[in-house]
Amino acid sequence: MSPSQEPVFPEYETDTSQTSKLLRKFKETPFVPIGMAGFAVVVGYGLYRLKHRGEMKMSLHLIHMRVAAQGFVVGAITCGVLYSMFREHLMKPKEERKTD
Question: Residue 15 gets which letter from DSSP?
């Protein structure tokens, strides 16, 4: 990009390091990384429990693990949406609510 051109998305191009981009995204949507981490924990625990499943069939154990992991992710996304709605609509100053 030449110096005379303006960036298309200047707010995204000012953050050059991956760490600063990740921290900014985590502040904007904190429940997405929490959902991803929870998914990884549930899958890891399910794989650990795989050898101690007893008489349970492998397919049934994998189905239970998948349902638990998906449930955690859906719950985290739902909490994130509710948090965003709360932050945008209830935490606004009263002056901004009157003009909307």
Answer: -
Burial 2-38 (b: 16+ CB within 10 A, else e): eeeeeeeeeeeeeeeeeeeeeeeeeeeeebeebbeeb
pLDDT in tens, 3-55: 566 656 655 555 468 888 778 878 777 777 888 888 888 888 888 888 887 88
Q: Is 54 left (phi over 0), alpha (psi -120 to 50) or beta?
A: left
User: For residues 60 and 65, what is the distance between their CA atoms, to the nearest angstrom?
Assistant: 9
What are the tokens at 25? 């995204």
Dihedral of the CA atoms 21, 27, 33, 34 (nearest 10)?
160
The model carries a pTM of: 0.58
Structure tokens, 41: 């924990």
Q: Tokens 């239970």 sit at which residue?
A: 64
